[in-house]
Amino acid sequence: MNAGSRKLMPKFLGGVLLAGVMLMCGCAVGPRYSRPSVPVPTDYKETPQNWKPAQPADQTLRGKWWEIYQDPQLNTLEEKINISNQSLKAAQAQFEQARATVRYNRADYYPTITAGVAASRERFSQNRPLALSTVRTRNDLVIPVDMSYEPDVWGRVRRTVEAARASAQASLADLESVSLSVHAELAVDYFSARELDAEAKLLDDTVASYVKQLELTENRYKGGVASQVDVAQAQTQLETARAQAIDVREQRTQFEHAIAVLIGEPASTFSLPVVPLNAIPPVIPPGLPSELLERRPDVAANERLMAAANAQIGVAKAAYFPLFNLFPSAGFESTTIVNWLSSPSAFALVGASAVVSAFDAGRRRAASDQARAGYDQTVANYRQDVLTALQELVDKSFQIKKSSWTSSWH
Fold first, then answer.
1. Which residues contact residue 336 at a Cβ distance below 8 angstroms, ignoring those fewer than 6 apart?
2. Exposed site from 101, 135, 325, 347, fewest CB < 10 Å?
3. What's the burial of 169, exposed, middle or buried (CB within 10 Å: 0-12/13-18/19+)?
4. Alpha helices (runs of H) in 107-227, residue ranges in sequence order
5. CA distances to 5, 19, 143 from 326, in Å
């Protein structure tokens, strides 16, 4: 390398570095995400108490809420859900997939480097065109190190990572929704079974009372005091009570099987011991419904899906701009192993390319329209979910108010 080449090399490398920095400092195309507004009333006609505006708090830990009932057997069953419930495991696996997708897309921020070893031996034809060399056989030993890097000029990678991160957050909210659902379903099934246990005990006592009443009626019939119609009525009362007791136990068995599925056990091997229902319902504070609205994970999931759909618009829009790529390469190449790794065997290459689609028959526009329509769909789903949540809040607050009125009357 002569002196002029040595002087130009730093300038060339500096220019390449400056171009790379400028490419990496590009701006992300596409709309910035802002949560769409939803009309939320400050109070409700049934209970004009000036409820405080809901502030999202879906990240708040729910804790072991079932322990408020102070039922050891219920606590044991609820803990088994976290270990063996298959629906919860599926939701957990889906969340792990979403997290892995974020890491996968985030890797596009960095260059991809490949290395390897190649060895070949080639025999040349003496009758080939322009055969000037007398060498007929040649070895080619190469150790290449290649790098490929796509600068995120238009924010395609950033928008992709943004969409993946929002989707992962939505998946986490879905996981929390599944957890709340299965835990709540278990509590409902458990107390329903306990209620049927109490009802079955009442029916058993009723059957025992009807048996004695039938014996008394039969004795009175034998003594001529009662008629045969009285005996038939007593028998009908007894058989009806027995049939009701059988139906109650059958319903109780169905709840028992449902609990077995929730805790991940075969229904044929699980049994729920009969225990008297002595639990006292906890007192619900008047302000609790509004707090529950703030912590609903389904609302948070739909909001995160909106953010992901908004980022996909930027990904689709980036396809209209040129795609830049840097592909430097270096390594060693020789014909013999002796001088394979020596300095004269080294080689290097620096290259860059820019590619843009000149004509695609409307494919990019269709992808952009699809992304915008997908975003509009998530907005509508989010607003509908908020309206449904507000309806449930109003219904719940009215029920609490109605319960207080009923208690004051009594």
1. 139, 141
2. 135
3. buried
4. 156-222
5. 23, 10, 20
Q: Dihedral of the CA atoms 167, 169, 170, 173 (nearest 10)? A: 160
> Is 6 contained in some domain?
no
Q: Total structural domains in the chain?
A: 1
Q: Which two tokens stand for residue 91?
A: 């939701």
Instruction: Report if residue 373 sits inside a domain.
Output: yes
CA 201 – CA 121 distance, rounded (Å): 91
Using one digit for the tens of pLDDT, what is the confidence trace for 90-120?
Answer: 999 999 999 999 999 999 999 999 999 999 8
Strand, helix or coil for residue 62:
coil
| AA identity, residue 289 | P
Buried b (16+ CB within 10 A) or exposed e, 241-278: bbebbeebeebbeebbbbbbbbbbeeeeeeebeeeeee
DSSP per residue, 245-262: HHHHHHHHHHHHHHHHHH
The full 3-state SS of 85-138, as one line of letters, equals CHHHHHHHHHHHHHHHHHHHHHHHHCCEEEECCEEEEEECCCCCCCCCCCCCEE
CATH number for the domain spanning 178: value is: 1.20.1600.10
CA atoms within 13 A on the CB side of 297: 17
Q: Is 21 part of any domain?
A: no
Taking the C-alpha atoms of residue 89 and residue 95, their distance in angstroms, rounded to an integer, is 10
Q: Are 341 and 332 in contact (CB under 8 A)?
A: yes
Question: Residue 291 to residues 181, 288, 299, 339, 397: CA-CA distances in angstroms?
Answer: 18, 5, 13, 75, 12
Bridge partners of 121? 139
- Measured CA to CA, the distance from residue 143 to residue 332 in angstroms comes to 5
110 Cα distance to chain centroid: 27
Residue 345: domain span: 26-125+134-409
Q: Could you read off the pLDDT of 234-243 as tens digits, one per residue?
A: 999 999 999 9
17 within domain boundaries: no
Sign of CA dihedral 131, 343, 140, 350: negative
